[in-house]
């Protein structure tokens, strides 16, 4: 193969990769609940899509992002074939909170940029709390979305510690604490 043909092929490949990334960023809606490894399409539409996200808060309030960890997680036992209740390891919890924070931030940049600006200005406060059941987690997501809060739910790909599709972390915000507290004050620290 001549070097000229190689360079032409490399240029065509690089152009195709750039075009794919550009078009995907322009037309792909990343609002589906996602994990770090896959997008699941078997979910019902997120309650987030029901109403608009508020972005009309007073910038002088305390802003935060709440990371709500699901405590009802399972893993299929290879020996017995039964579902066993499990807890996320500290590393898994850190990775899941990173996915949730980034997902909520990216969504909020489009839906409530003023809230993001104010949250960034005061130090990006993030608070982790725990939710005892997946049912309560989904109810919280619905209530927060109905209140106009930005929400982002992470579902795990299931490659390591828990079952595929498990809902691990719900990120709420960034938004003023006064908008979140009435809905989430009862949750205990993680």
List the helices and strands and how they pair.
Layout: H1 3-27, E1 63-70, E2 73-76, E3 83-86, H2 90-111, H3 113-121, E4 126-131, H4 134-146, E5 151-155, E6 167-176, H5 177-184, E7 188-189
Parallel strand pairs: 1-4
Antiparallel strand pairs: 1-6, 2-3, 4-7, 5-6
CATH architecture of the largest domain: 3-Layer(aba) Sandwich
Structural class: alpha+beta
CATH class of the largest domain: Alpha Beta
The total tally of domains equals 2
Number of helices: 5
Secondary-structure element string: HEEEHHEHEEHE
Instruction: Look at the structure and give the mean pLDDT.
Output: 82
The percent range for strand residues is 15-25%
The quaternary organization reads as single chain
CATH topology of the largest domain: Bit1
Q: Regions with pLDDT < 50 over 5+ consecutive residues? A: 26-50
The side-by-side strand order for the widest beta sheet comes to: 5-6-1-4-7
- Percent range of helical residues: 40-55%
Distance between the termini: 59 Å
Radius of gyration: 20 Å
- Tell the overall outline: flat
Q: How is this structure best described in words?
A:
The chain has 190 residues and is of the alpha+beta class. It has 2 domains: 1-30; 47-189, Bit1, CATH 3.40.1490. It has 5 helices and 7 strands; from the N terminus they run αβββααβαββαβ. α2 (90-111) crosses α3. The longest helix has 25 residues, at 3-27. 29% of the residues are buried. The model is unreliable at 26-50 (pLDDT under 50).
């Amino acid at each position: 193969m001549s070097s000229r043909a190689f360079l032409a092929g490399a240029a065509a490949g690089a152009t195709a990769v750039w075009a794919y990334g550009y078009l995907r960023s322009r037309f792909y809606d990343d609002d589906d609940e996602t994990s770090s490894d896959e997008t699941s399409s078997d979910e019902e539409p997120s309650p987030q899509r029901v109403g608009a996200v508020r972005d009309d808060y007073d910038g002088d309030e305390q802003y935060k992002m709440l990371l709500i960890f699901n405590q009802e997680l399972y893993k299929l036992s290879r020996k017995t074939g039964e579902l066993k209740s499990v807890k996320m390891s500290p590393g898994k919890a850190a990775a899941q909170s990173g996915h949730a924070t980034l997902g909520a931030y990216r969504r909020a940049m489009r839906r409530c940029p003023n809230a993001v600006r104010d949250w960034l200005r005061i130090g990006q406060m993030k608070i982790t709390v725990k939710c005892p059941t997946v049912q309560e987690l989904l109810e919280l997501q619905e209530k927060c979305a109905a209140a106009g809060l930005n929400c982002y739910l992470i579902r795990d790909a299931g490659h390591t510690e828990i079952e595929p599709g498990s809902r691990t972390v719900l990120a709420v915000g960034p938004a003023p604490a006064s908008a979140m507290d009435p809905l989430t004050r009862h949750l205990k620290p993680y």
